[in-house]
Specification:
2 domains; alpha/beta; 13 strands; 15 helices; 6-stranded parallel β-sheet; 385 residues; Rossmann fold
């Protein structure tokens, strides 16, 4: 009997790390069903919360070393574990750049085919964060290791062009496959918690139109301009509009608290991480989704909103803005306070626009972004490496 192929995902696999964990969950489910052995190896902050895994997937979590202050997510235990296991993997799938796991498969000799998914880490905004460290690491190792990858997976056409500008000769290694998710409307959930239902009922009773921001409380997500824009909207519509901000704490949490401490309206609600039945119920209850990010690889939260047939306001940096505009499936604006305000103002008052965007959003998701199609395309791509 032929040995099963073994695929290793290297990443920070937590709610706090954002979209890559969700991408891995969706793909690994399909990979296991296709007959692969799948392991996820993650060195994560002890304060972070591990993301769920698909049935049959092995999750290995490693403590970070004090050296992670120098090289993000550095872990001695992960290093020694990988040395022991290095020749058991047929594929190593590296998610993102600029951290220990992205370098490890190139530092330790092994037989695996190496796939790198960039996840937006080469976006100009991402480059600007801790710029000197990234430039140093890029010149020392990261650039050379990216060139050594057997396949470079990009999730947007913009990201593909960034890579081609950097490496014109690597076109044959670069594969474009967008993100995908399981159709949330096909999933069955237990009932949401009574406390959560009551909390949303109180909001809906006061406000006919409820916006949802669902993502990490990270400065790149545009929360500074969102709160400012929503303040202007509230001056016109008062309690008729409400904004729910939901997601795990991150580097903008303190700044957001500062913004809200001087916010004069009583129409913004803060939720922590929302999952499972509560998340499904939340999407059912809200009237519009908004994510005015300064930088995104390819937002899973936005994709979920499209799948739930919600009218969306998304920034030009969302990763698949061009496709959304072509399908008239979302309002796309620049990540600027006035642009976000004008988009929110239009959406709240235009019922026909709400209905059209909702219909087109669902249609685009079903046509292009269901995980069965996306994961199948990805499996075919790695088999050809």
């Amino acid at each position: 009997m032929n040995q099963k192929e073994h695929l290793l995902h290297l990443c920070s696999y937590s709610y706090e790390s954002g979209g890559p964990a969700s991408v891995i969950l969706n793909h690994s489910r399909f990979q296991v069903e296709s007959g692969m052995d799948v392991t996820i190896a993650s060195s994560m902050d002890r304060a972070h919360h591990p993301y769920p895994t698909a049935p049959g997937v092995q999750l290995e979590i490693f403590n970070q070393s004090v050296f992670s202050r120098i090289l993000s997510e550095f872990s001695w235990s992960l290093l020694f574990w990988f040395i022991r296991k290095r020749n058991t993997f047929h594929y190593v799938h590296i998610h993102g750049l600029w951290y220990f796991g992205a370098l490890l498969p190139f530092l330790v000799p092994n037989k695996a085919k190496k796939i790198v998914t960039v996840h937006g880490f080469l976006d100009p905004y991402a480059w600007s964060r801790s710029a000197w460290k990234k430039k140093l690491l890029w010149n020392l190792m990261q650039k050379r290791f990216l060139l050594q990858a057997d396949m470079i997976h990009v999730i947007s056409r913009e990201e593909e062009q960034i890579l081609l500008n950097l490496f014109p000769d690597l076109r044959s290694k670069i594969v474009f496959i967008p993100n995908g998710i399981v159709d949330p409307k096909s999933q069955s959930h237990a009932k949401p918690s009574p406390e959560f239902v009551l909390q949303l009922a109180e909001i809906k009773a006061k406000s006919p139109f409820v916006f949802l921001f669902l993502s990490r409380i990270n400065r790149k997500k545009g929360l500074d301009i969102l709160v400012g824009a929503f303040d202007k909207l509230s001056l016109q519509h008062g309690k008729d509009v409400h904004l729910i901000i939901a997601g795990p704490q991150d580097d903008y949490s303190d700044a957001l608290a500062g913004q809200l401490s001087t916010y004069t309206h009583q129409n913004i609600a803060l939720f922590d991480v929302v999952t499972g039945a509560n998340k499904a119920y939340l999407f059912a209850q809200i009237d519009g989704f908004i994510l005015p990010s300064y930088s995104e690889g390819f937002s899973i939260a936005a994709l979920e909103a499209l799948a739930y047939s919600k009218p969306c306001i998304l920034s030009t940096r969302i990763g698949f803005a061009t496709e959304l505009l072509a399908a008239d499936a979302a309002m796309i604006c620049e990540p600027k306070q006035e642009d976000v305000f004008q988009a929110m103002k239009t959406l709240v008052t235009d019922l026909n626009l709400q209905k059209r965007l909702a219909l087109n959003a669902r249609s685009l998701f079903l046509a292009d972004y269901q995980i069965e199609r996306v994961a199948s395309d990805f499996m075919m791509a790695i088999k050809q490496v």
